[in-house]
Amino acid sequence: MPGFPSGGPLRGLPRGTGNISAVEPFPQAAHRELGDAQLRANLGRATHTIRDKRLKVVSELPDWEALRDAGSAIKTEAMARLPELLTQFEEQFAARGGTVHWARDAAEANAIVEGLIRETGEKEVVKVKSMATQEIGLNEHLEERGIAAFETDLAELIVQLGHDRPSHILVPAIHKNRTEIRDIFLREMPDVDPTLTDEPRRLAMAARAHLRKKFLSAKVAISGANFGIAETGTLGVVESEGNGRMCLTLPETLITVMGIEKVLPRAQDLEVFMQLLPRSSTGERMNPYTSMWTGVTPGDGPQNVHVILLDNGRTRALADRHGRSALHCIRCSACMNVCPVYERTGGHAYGSTYPGPIGAILSPLLTGVEAEENASLPYASSLCGACFDACPVKINIPEILVHLRGEDVSGGTAGRRRRGFPSQLDVALGAASWALSSGDRLGLLEKGLPIARALAGRDEKISRLPGLGAGWTQSRDVPAPPSESFRSWWKKREKEAR
């Protein structure tokens, strides 16, 4: 891969991955979040609303499936030609007055951004909503070094003022209702009207007044990018509020952090994605604001323009032939809005910047499934397939989840456990293998059926099992076993017949 200093991108576990490693296993985090009834109510209303809007606008297009196929094909081509396309993008962007930087991981990207801001002498920056900067932990990095980064997207602003973490790719504050948002504004927003109500219009007006001062005074802006066009060196951001347009045009310096997988071969490819993305993300026929810029335009917009091309585990994911299609993701969040697991646990349970079904595959692919922090994420799914049906670029998320589970069992944390002391699952599977490999052994075990039947009692079910089985009976009942086996019943029948 051209452009990376010191011998190319990292192929092993990245040394400074930022916010893509969970701080605790998913089962523990999910169990805690399930106890929050308000969270489940907020998520249920929000995801159902977005889902219904998406279904309506998608059904209007007779060629929707053809568009999905086209999007998948374009992303497949881009990943197959990634080194070539990135080189072309760098050449075209630089030829038009922009500066290209390459970052192998979060630590390098953060250091580059910090250095560029210090060159301007500024202590404050405004930000367009960006998953890449959230991924590398840029806000935290800058804050520790005395630079204030102000989020200008309304939902990101709510999360930032609430000292919280995003829980959704598209709507980071989806876990908050409007009363909670009003309380955050009253507590954290300077000069807010103390009579502020939770009426959405009033909340939006308060945020607009707060942000307007930042837009007009900021000299430096930081953005992500939805797309980077190799053919022309163009960057593109799509958004719904106009805050991005303000950040991309008013400041003197513009710094963009873009994951290397966002590159597309041609400008014509946008024809497909500008139909897929808004319908899949917000349920709109087209997004309200689309901003495109190519390097520097003298006398118009920022005159000091930079882009940081971020790896942070992406070449690692690209090397996985079963999982590399996760890099096709266009961050629409459609998979989250249909996922029964996400709807009940919320995004915080996943621990990573990328929650939901796509996060369950993308985070382990970026860090390696052998990283214990993310090893439980591939199991955060019922494998129902709704995410695959909703994905606008046809990422087969269930198939990749199964692949990653296999990787975990063979070489990840589960594999390491097997090479040490055997787990309860290992013992149980070993016992089942021993019993089922011989009819005589199975017959011996079947003699214990009356005892198991007695444990069930009159309820005709077993409500509590010890050890590994407790995880099942915690939320389900096990049907009572029969009082005798088929083999025993058949022998009695044959004996009576004679």
Automatic annotation (TrEMBL):
Residues 1-21, 471-498 are annotated as: Disordered. InterPro entries: 4Fe4S_Fe-S-bd, 4Fe4S_Fe_S_CS, FTHF_cligase-like_sf, Helical_ferredxn, LUD_dom, LutB/LldF, NagB/RpiA_transferase-like. Residues 87-310 form the LUD domain. Residues 1-10 have a biased composition (Gly residues). Keywords: 4Fe-4S, Electron transport, Iron, Iron-sulfur, Metal-binding, Repeat, Transport. SUPFAM superfamilies: 4Fe-4S ferredoxins, NagB/RpiA/CoA transferase-like. The keyword 4Fe-4S applies. Residues 326-395 form the 4Fe-4S ferredoxin-type domain. It holds the Pfam family Fer4_8. It comes from the Bacteria. This is Lactate utilization protein B. It comes from Sinomonas terricola.
